[in-house]
Amino acid sequence: MEKPTAYIVVFTLLLVLPFSFGCAKKVAEGNGWSISSDEFEDLYESLPPEMATVLSTPEGRKQYLENLAMEEILYHEAEKEGILDDPYVMHLAEKAKRSVIIEEYLRRELSKGIVTPSTEDIMAFYEENKEAFDNAETIRVRHILVKTEEEAEGILESLEAGEGFSDLAREYSICPTGPDGGDLGFFKRGEMIKEFEDAAFDLEKPGDISDIVKTKYGYHIIKMEDKDHLLEQYYYDSQDEMIRNHLMKLKEENEYTIYEENLGYEE
Predict the structure, then answer these.
(1) Top-level CATH class of 119-229?
(2) Which of 27, 168, 178, 266 could in theory staple to 173 by disulfide, Cβ–Cβ 3.0 to 4.6 A?
(3) What are phi and psi of 206, to 5 degrees?
(4) What is the pLDDT of residue 20?
């Protein structure tokens, strides 16, 4: 499924920014605009996992806030120039709105049909593609980050008792990826701090979970999700098939007429 183009994402973000999310404290303010702490946190938590990780430091959060402030300034400058009264710009905004709504509709419909693979499914897939997994150059992991070793030990016990990794990440992880179930996305060797990277690449197959890993950020528990995009591609292929089937079903259920003669094409 294709993602919205850059202008759709940026334009949609600019449309959202001017509105306040509540009575929270302001974290930035300018001439005719402000950003509340609630608004900042909401936008921050919606970042892709790999970007949230990069911006997880105090300096990174400040830089992200600087970017949001500049977007506010640009939006209000555009407003002063009368761009919001330009019919063509409003046409683009309506297209952006429709595209985002359609993408969200497909995402929700797709999620209804997704079945999480069992441990047996993952093991079978690993055995069928063992050579590719063993020579992986990129991996995808989830992690749970906590402040103390005692907290990490408690989470390991919960995992051993059968609780879901993503659910525990959302509940306990202090990393910005927590709301996304701790998903860090794909990364290569050399892109993470050594202790974390070594433990992650030591995991053999999807579903494996590390022992407690100590870094300067705290105590991590890491779960292997994929190697070299093999499982990701497997899931995407399944999702593409589900989307095609859903679109065919909609086409069959909704009558419509095509007036090809009115298209204006002449041979």
Answers:
(1) alpha beta
(2) 178
(3) -55, 135
(4) 42
Q: Is the pLDDT of residue 58 over 80?
A: yes
Burial 91-105 (b: 16+ CB within 10 A, else e): eebeebeebeeeeee
3-state secondary structure of 8: helix
β pairing state of 26-30 and 33-36:
antiparallel
Report which residue type is found at 143. Answer: H
CA 186 to chain centre: 12
Q: How many residues does the chain have?
A: 267
200 Cβ neighbours under 8 A, 6+ residues apart: 139, 141, 192, 210, 222, 224
| Structural domain spans, the chain | 6-113, 119-229
Contact 32, 78 (CB under 8 A): no
Q: Tell which residue, 100, 116, 106, 118, has the closest CA to residue 242.
A: 106
pLDDT of the residue at 146? 94
pLDDT of residue 240: 62
Sheet holding 138-146, edge to edge: 183-188, 138-146, 218-227, 213-215
pLDDT tens for residues 226-245? 876 666 555 655 666 666 66
Which residues make Cβ contacts (< 8 Å) with residue 144, sequence separation at least 6? 152, 155, 165, 168, 169, 172, 173, 175, 178, 182, 220, 221
Q: What torsion do the CA atoms of 225, 192, 144, 217 make, to the nearest 10 degrees?
A: 180
